Amino acid sequence: MKKKTVAAMLMVCMTLSMTACGGEEEKPAEKTESAAETAETDKEEEKEEKTEAENTKDQAKASVRLVSVEDISKYITVGEYKGLELDKVVAPVSDSETDVEIEFRLQESPEEVQGASVETGDQVRINFTGTIDGESFDGGTEQDYDLIVGESGITEEFDQGVLGMKKGETKEINVHFPEEYYDSEVAGKSAVYEVTVQKISRTPELTDEWVAANTESKTVEEYREAVKKELEADAEMMAGYALQTDAWNQVLETSEIKEYPEEDIQEAIDAYKALNEEYIQQAEMDMSEFLKSQGITEEEYEEECRQYAESKVEQNLIVQYIMDQENLSFEDEDAEEIQKELIQQYGAADIEELVEYYGQTAVNESLALLRVEKFIIDNAEINEKTGGSADAAENEDALEEDDAYVTEEEAGVQQTDSGETEDLVVEE
Fold first, then answer.
1. Is 385 found in the same domain as 276?
2. Interval 326-342: pLDDT, tens
3. For 226-272, what is the HEC assignment?
4. What's the confidence (pLDDT) of residue 35?
5. How far apart are CA 105 and CA 176, in angstroms?
6. Deepest of 44, 143, 191, 343, by most Cβ within 10 A of its Cβ?
């Protein structure tokens, strides 16, 4: 509740309290009128505050800057970014690639089979209890455990033992864990598993009936064409990402840094360290254990932080320079479309959700970079080509720190000159 609203309500309460103390009979009517007037004033004040807040928000958006300095030319000479010649290479989709994709989808849609015996490749749900010398052990007992026979990861003996079993059948399977087994607690030991099959599922055959029941197509041939079109759309999208990477790299490679604004460098170093410290804490390690796990010294880690910061700041200087020179906005139609695409790409409800997860700085840097990349491409000569998948490098404009020691799920994204990313999107 607004402070002014609280103050107004306190005034009403004070008036009502005075009524309780006595006074002329006309007073209650006068006090009721005062309360109504106060409520009306309160609404007006809330309206004014809301308008003021919206104006402040709009001004903040308009004044967003990625760097602390105004005279960017003092720090960097930005390479040519208009009139570039760029290749957009779209990888063709072969019939064999289409068949592989369909087979994968079939495997992802297993169907339960009745009265069948377990075969290699079946997806089986089992209950099992394992014992070593008659004693249970950690990880040796599971309920409703799903595995692919032949790929269980337990032991080959275990998978072989499940073969031929039927739903509802219980069987004891003897296994011996190899000396190099990943679980040192059971490595080199023998165990007995009591296994009960709960469910047997199998990859379905590709038929017109399956297609009609499980897809929007009616026949196998129609489904193949639909899948191929999906793959072609993906190839087009990947070619677009590669084009963004190429556009950025051409500008980056012809730009020359003069010096770094130290305020921005320190801020980037602090943010990078904070991200790694969060990871270290989650991993229940201290800094010395972390450095040991990465095989680096403290001095090397400090240098890594500095390199990361310099790459990030260089990128921000270039992006901000182009935005300033071309009067690019966070609020024009292109920027709004990019924002929608970013929201969709990461499955967020709105931009506020991205901000909450990645932070305002990361979101601003991502939107600005993508906005500048679009400007470069829109002002370039694009050569449309068809090539193999090796020719179309993937632009990973995703949520991941470049050279950070954290995973994509634990970090935001920074994009490097190979197409990798920082915070949301940062090219280096």
1. yes
2. 999 888 888 899 999 99
3. HHHHHHHHHHHHHHHHHHHHHHHHHHHHCCEECCCCHHHHHHHHHHH
4. 52
5. 35
6. 191
